[in-house]
């Protein structure tokens, strides 16, 4: 079921004294105003995929998947793994785009600034976005 995003009105703590500067502060409402909560074994932004380890049209077929140590893979298995990484680097995501400007640079959303991205770089970008320093303007970071 999908619903409007409701954010807490609780005041922010003193650990982040730069309110209104970083788009991550109001995540996800800075870019989205609705979100979905999937039921059963479904997942994804539109609940159209199966949770990890589940398959089938109703996501009821369970398959045990074991994450293996890359150092324990045979040469053909390593080749297959690296082939999939290469494929991910050359496959544009059909589901996701990334912002290439802040919400403020997008004039509070009236001038969208998004870019297509390949699947590999999407995972790299997500890690960068959530772990980057808070940008305070100019050369200042927090």
TrEMBL record:
Domain Laminin EGF-like span(s) in chain numbering: 34-57
CDD domains to which the protein is assigned, alphabetical: EGF_Lam
Gene3D superfamilies per record: Di-copper center containing domain from catechol oxidase (1.10.1280.10)
Family annotation (SUPFAM superfamilies): Di-copper centre-containing domain
One Pfam family matching this protein: EGF_laminin
Protein name: Tyrosinase
Source organism (scientific name): Macaca mulatta (Rhesus macaque)
